[in-house]
């Protein structure tokens, strides 16, 4: 795999995390740096770790795992998106309580958006990719793009109000469906 192909792969893998970061930014409206860094950091970390996990698991039982990973990602993203939709209709528009990003809220998103990266890791062994630089590149690209997406989403979210949370929830559900359909 060439360096150019690795860069393209890193950007492609980051897109789910970027879309979720955008959705979170829509909901946050005025994110604190701590929240944005936690989101981007977790997404970057998991996008980097999952290919390593896939690379290791490829040697043991890749066939068994590959059949269920789309269902796991679909379920997690759909549930989180549905929760956002539920909260958007239950919250009072006048209430301007900023959302707080926690490890508990980010961890399922980081796992769900990085499952496809585990599948990519399986191919690393077959293609004899130097894993360390590849996963570092994937993690850094995901971090940088996700960080920007949180702030971009918050700017759009300020203008959309409650509709931003609806859009964010629909984005998560849409990503889950896309993962499931392949």
Automatic annotation (TrEMBL):
Belongs to the MntP (TC 9.B.29) family. It comes from Nocardioides faecalis. PANTHER family: MANGANESE EFFLUX PUMP MNTP-RELATED (PTHR35529). The chain crosses the membrane at residues 6-26, 38-62, 68-86, 106-127, 133-152, 164-181. GO terms for cellular component: plasma membrane. Its main location: membrane. It is a multi-pass membrane protein. One of its GO terms (molecular function) is manganese ion transmembrane transporter activity. Signal peptide: none annotated. The keyword DNA damage does not apply. This is Putative manganese efflux pump MntP. Probably functions as a manganese efflux pump. It holds the Pfam family Mntp. Keywords: Cell membrane, Ion transport, Manganese, Membrane, Transmembrane, Transmembrane helix, Transport. It comes from the Bacteria. It is found in: Cell membrane. The gene is mntP.
